[in-house]
Amino acid sequence: MSDGTLFTDLKERKLIRTIVPRGLVRSLKLDVKLADPSDAQQLYEKEFPLRKYPTFVGPHDEWTLTEAMAIDYYLIHLSSDKEAVRQLLGPEGDFKTRADILRWESLSNSDFLNEVCEVFFPLIGVKPYNATEFKAARENVDTIVSLYEKRLKKQQYLVCDDHETLADLISAAAFSLGFISFFDETWRSKHPEVTRWFNRVIKSRFFEGEFESFKMCETEMQPIK
């Protein structure tokens, strides 16, 4: 019997928060079905009235889960690969490491990604361009990026120097939106540590099927005014 169904944007694959859970299902060989909401519209709308994803439905539709970080955590614990669980979440009982992983997950999945979206949306016309708001969002992105650059000058990955954790996966997924739109060649030359880290992390086995054809922008996109 399947361990459940992960609803994700299989058809367009544009939503950042769906990248990591899809990769986890594939790389950890989980017995979890990947489904687009359009393939089970009635169930999806009944169980998830906010219509946001990723979302997860357990066996026999008896249990549901929302919020990407919670779903990632649950999916990892479905794996029988104990070494992968330890690598991604930190050693059991090592609360300092686990808290540090959670800290970077939360920063990237909330404050950072929200600010990147505030820059990205005016670039594609989803949100009207407002010069003051756009400038503030860029400055907030720069401030958060500086925290990553500082950490990555000291070590290869965000928490553990010798391997990626869930913190790196969630952070890299969030950074990918910037790298396709306004983290251009000039920006990358000024942020070498973040750029090296990103290029390393997207090659992780846990991103199976997600970044094979990824291309960074050469020049920064401009707002649609």
From TrEMBL:
GO terms for cellular component: cytoplasm; nucleus. Gene3D superfamilies: 1.20.1050.10, Glutaredoxin. CDD domains: GST_C_EF1Bgamma_like (cd03181). Pfam families: GST_C, GST_N. Residues 94-225 form the GST C-terminal domain. GO terms for biological process: translational elongation. Belongs to the GST superfamily. This is GST C-terminal domain-containing protein. It comes from Saccharomyces pastorianus (Lager yeast).
